[in-house]
Structure to design on (485 residues):
């Protein structure tokens, strides 16, 4: 009897040891840049994105995943778990020649993950400040970085304005001449995947692609996929989406070959809505990149895993925001996020489709533009002007029959009439924001205004400094380089 009891205790100890010694899952966070709501194959069959579609359809498509109106703001959310109006980054993007940055006293997502043994790598676009080395990726928790610091650049020669902007860790780096950036980033990612031991190490890979931001550049083979589209901007833009899709496909092939998929969570999201003046499309949503409309802030997103999600192959309509990725990914890694952040742990919602803990969020509060928007339950309040793209922008006429229903171009002109001080929408019943109900429901309007006032009490003044001539690339051998603030 004693012998049997000893064996039982030994077995329990072995099981407990195995459970506690199991490595935390690999986490890959892919961010597309300027991807429109209507620019993915799982939503628009005119788009050729088979690799993304396969992941999305076999994972969980997130149909109410919100981001910020522009690039730097969303990246702030992902890396910090805070709304931009709590870090001073609420007004526009960080300019290459201005000393803006994510404050250095904020602990970033990779820094938190390194505390529990993750290897952390970044490939792609940073756009969270670089005027001092301490604001750059390898000083913010990443073991390695390949990519660029600024907002946008040429896909082939990696120039932004008057300067060159491409790095491998802290060194200026020149990829093979003429190679498209989506391919460069995929190749670097594959090198990382081959260097890490998926059985003995836990990997966090942050992969914010340059694609599909302006400029309108893509290898000819991808543009030819859309030869039926007569509008050149739209044709090239769609080609950029397919180039991104191919890069993701090449990466996921290696993930399977190397055994990562046995213990991996893959997250895909855009950073903001699509820029309609650069070929993107957000139908049926209203607005575009830079605006507080749904077309600027409701992001195409999904999660995928072979093993970690308890429920898959469905459309998740629960509310979440970009700040929620920070505590959610920490939960997956076995880490508890600080209670002071704005993000909420969404893992039960994503993995089991339980009700979202998020019942409200802040789209943004910008005291310089004097605009703001919040969501509480089904209701959305907009204060001030939502932005410069206030319509519903159809696909080019020759490419989509739906555009015939939108033949009056004045409908998309943001200068037709001034916006009222406040607008109220029922997003559940009017997701395309056609009907301002502020006059119909004055009591709801007042409640929403009061809630916005509460949010404003914690606003940190925007850190949006003017250009600094010391940033000029001519002082750094023609490159955008840290060291001037």
């Amino acid at each position: 009897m004693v012998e049997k009891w000893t064996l039982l205790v030994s077995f329990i100890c072995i099981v407990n040891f195995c459970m506690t010694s199991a490595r935390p899952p690999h986490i890959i966070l892919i961010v597309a840049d300027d991807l429109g709501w209507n620019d993915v194959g799982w939503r628009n069959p005119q788009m050729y994105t088979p690799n993304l579609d396969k992941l999305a359809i076999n994972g969980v498509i997130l149909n109410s995943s919100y981001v910020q109106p522009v690039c730097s703001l969303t990246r702030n959310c992902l890396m910090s778990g805070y709304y931009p109006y709590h870090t001073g980054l609420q007004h526009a993007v960080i300019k290459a020649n201005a000393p803006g940055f994510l404050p250095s006293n904020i602990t970033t997502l990779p820094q938190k993950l390194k505390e529990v043994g993750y290897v952390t790598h970044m490939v792609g676009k940073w756009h969270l400040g670089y005027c001092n080395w301490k604001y750059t990726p390898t000083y913010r928790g990443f073991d390695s970085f390949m990519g660029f610091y600024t907002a946008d650049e040429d896909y082939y020669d990696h120039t932004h304005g008057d300067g060159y902007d491409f790095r491998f860790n802290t060194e200026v780096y020149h990829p093979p001449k003429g190679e498209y950036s989506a391919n460069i980033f995929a190749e670097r990612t594959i090198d990382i995947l081959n260097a890490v031991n998926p059985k003995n190490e836990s990997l966090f890979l942050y992969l914010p692609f340059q694609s599909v931001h302006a400029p309108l550049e893509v290898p000819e083979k991808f543009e030819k996929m859309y030869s039926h589209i007569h509008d050149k901007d739209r044709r090239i833009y769609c080609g950029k989406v397919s180039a991104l899709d191919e890069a993701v496909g090449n990466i996921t092939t290696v993930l399977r070959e190397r055994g990562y998929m046995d213990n991996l969570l893959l997250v895909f999201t855009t950073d903001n809505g699509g820029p309609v003046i650069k070929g993107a499309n957000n139908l049926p949503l209203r607005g575009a990149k830079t605006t507080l409309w749904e077309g600027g802030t409701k992001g195409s997103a999904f999660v995928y895993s072979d093993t970690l999600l308890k429920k898959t192959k469905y459309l998740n309509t629960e509310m979440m925001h970009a700040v929620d990725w920070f505590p959610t990914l920490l939960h997956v890694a076995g880490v508890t996020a600080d209670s002071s952040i704005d993000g909420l742990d969404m893992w039960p919602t994503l993995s089991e489709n339980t009700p979202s803990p998020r019942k409200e969020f802040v789209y943004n509060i910008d005291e310089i533009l004097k605009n703001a928007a919040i969501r509480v339950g089904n209701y959305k309040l907009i204060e001030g002007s939502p932005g410069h793209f206030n319509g519903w922008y159809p696909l080019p006429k020759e490419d989509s029959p739906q555009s015939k229903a939108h033949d009056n171009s004045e409908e998309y002109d943001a200068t037709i009439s001034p916006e009222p001080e406040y607008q109220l929408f029922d997003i559940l019943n009017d997701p395309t924001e056609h009907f301002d109900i502020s006059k119909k429901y004055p009591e709801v309007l007042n409640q929403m205004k009061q809630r916005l006032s509460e949010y404003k009490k914690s606003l940190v003044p925007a850190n949006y400094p003017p250009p600094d001539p010391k940033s000029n690339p001519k002082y750094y051998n023609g490159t955008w380089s840290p060291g001037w603030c």
About this structure: The mean pLDDT is 92. The CA atoms of residues 163 and 478 lie 5 Å apart. The chain is about 25% helix and 15% strand. The two ends are 73 Å apart (CA to CA).
